[in-house]
Design goal:
single chain, alpha+beta, Trna Endonuclease, Chain: A, domain 1, 4-stranded mixed sheet, 17% strand, globular
Length: 125
């Protein structure tokens, strides 16, 4: 018996790998001048119209990046993950413009190595 091929989710796989990296680096840096924290705003996914309206009323915004990094001294950076030839959507471009107008860092990363570079640039650099 043949099963249908599972749909590939390369961006989800990238995000899982990035979260592993960030969790490890966060644990190692805890209590040092290179300490940081990260989180993923769970904005994505399909929702029914009622649930989507509730989330919008609670402050969920379209275009918010996949990872938020908070690091010293009181800085924040946003990282949008893209797989393959992924590009920013118009909503993501709009969010990036708002973030940059506030003089916050915004990065688009296509690999775990890209995120390592961002982390080293922000926290160590």
């Amino acid at each position: 018996m043949e099963f249908p091929a599972r749909r590939q989710h390369p961006e989800s796989a990238l995000q899982r790998a990035v979260v592993k990296l960030l969790a490890l680096r966060e644990a190692v840096a805890r209590g040092t001048p290179r300490a940081f924290l990260f989180f993923h705003p769970p904005n994505g996914g399909l929702r029914n119209p009622r649930e989507a309206a509730i989330f919008k009323a609670l402050g969920v915004r379209v275009g918010v990046p996949d990872i938020v990094l908070v690091y010293s001294p009181a800085n924040v950076a946003f990282v949008e993950l893209k797989a393959g030839k992924g590009r920013l959507s118009p909503a993501q471009e709009g969010f990036r413009e708002c973030v940059q107008n506030l003089q916050c860092a915004y990065y688009v990363a296509w690999s775990v190595e890209d995120v390592e570079y961002v982390l080293d640039e922000l926290v160590i650099g």
